[in-house]
């Protein structure tokens, strides 16, 4: 954990300084392009995190792994937070670029659905007194919602949307100059490390909480037996 937190803070700090002070403004977007150094990593984490949630749900349903249940339980609030940041920064960018905070096109609507899926999973796993029942219900919801991830990714290719097409993950060549691309990738790495550190810290706390509850239950039973 200390090494992960240190790496996350270091890389994020370097990426933030690079994006804010060293990276040039875009010839079309001007200084507004700096919002992309947060928006794009948040979008990647929203989709990648939900894919991870789907993998944890498969582990939960097939192998009944308790750590998968705990990790999924702690992952969903963090995933909801990064998706909310993705939507918020996208709106901040959209107002000067598109002239509006929001449009109901395929990309924005599918990301909003993804946000509600994160929130739904976070609420559902905590809606049952029996944690195992909540974990099973949340895993089913996560797997059903997994179909939305490719919709988010390919929505700009499948439909005519206001949102710009992929400019970083193109197979032939990225549609960004390296002066903008490199700090974006550093920020993506830094935010990914932060995301992992937060989820790991939350999962570790959940494991310790479960151990404490188990000890308290055992002590209560011994006291009743005595």
UniProtKB/TrEMBL annotation:
InterPro entries registered for this protein in UniProt: Cyt_c_assembly, Cyt_c_biogenesis_CcmC, Cyt_c_biogenesis_CcsA/CcmC
Example GO molecular function: heme transmembrane transporter activity
Membrane topology, from the record: Multi-pass membrane protein
This protein's UniProt keywords: Cell inner membrane, Cell membrane, Cytochrome c-type biogenesis, Membrane, Transmembrane, Transmembrane helix, Transport
Membrane-spanning segments: 43-63, 75-94, 106-125, 137-160, 180-201
Record-annotated Cytochrome c assembly protein domain positions: 8-163
Main subcellular location: membrane
Pfam families referenced in this protein's UniProt entry, alphabetically: Cytochrom_C_asm (PF01578)
Subcellular location: Cell inner membrane; Membrane
Cellular component terms per the entry's GO annotation: plasma membrane
GO biological process: cytochrome complex assembly
Family of the protein in this entry: Belongs to the CcmC/CycZ/HelC family.
Function: Required for the export of heme to the periplasm for the biogenesis of c-type cytochromes.
Protein name: Heme exporter protein C
């Amino acid at each position: 954990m200390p090494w992960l937190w240190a790496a996350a803070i270091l890389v994020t700090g370097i990426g933030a300084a690079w994006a804010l002070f060293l990276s040039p403004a875009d010839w079309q977007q001007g200084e507004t392009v700096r919002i992309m150094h947060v928006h794009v990593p948040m979008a990647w984490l929203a989709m990648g995190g939900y894919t991870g949630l789907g993998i944890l749900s498969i582990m939960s349903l097939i192998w009944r792994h308790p750590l998968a249940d705990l990790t999924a339980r702690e992952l969903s609030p963090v995933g909801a937070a990064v998706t909310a940041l993705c939507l918020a920064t996208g709106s901040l960018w959209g107002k000067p670029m598109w002239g509006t905070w929001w449009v109901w096109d395929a990309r924005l609507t599918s990301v909003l659905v993804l946000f509600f899926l994160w929130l739904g999973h976070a609420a559902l796993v905590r809606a049952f007194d029996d944690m195992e029942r909540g974990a099973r219900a949340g895993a089913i919801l996560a797997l059903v919602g997994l179909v939305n991830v490719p919709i988010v990714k390919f929505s700009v290719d499948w439909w005519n949307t206001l949102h710009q097409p992929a400019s970083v993950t193109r197979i032939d060549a990225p549609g960004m100059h390296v002066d903008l691309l490199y700090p974006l990738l550093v920020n993506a790495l830094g935010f990914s490390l932060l995301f992992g550190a937060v989820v790991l810290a939350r999962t570790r706390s959940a494991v310790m909480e479960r151990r404490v509850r188990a000890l308290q239950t055992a002590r209560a039973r011994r006291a009743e037996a005595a």
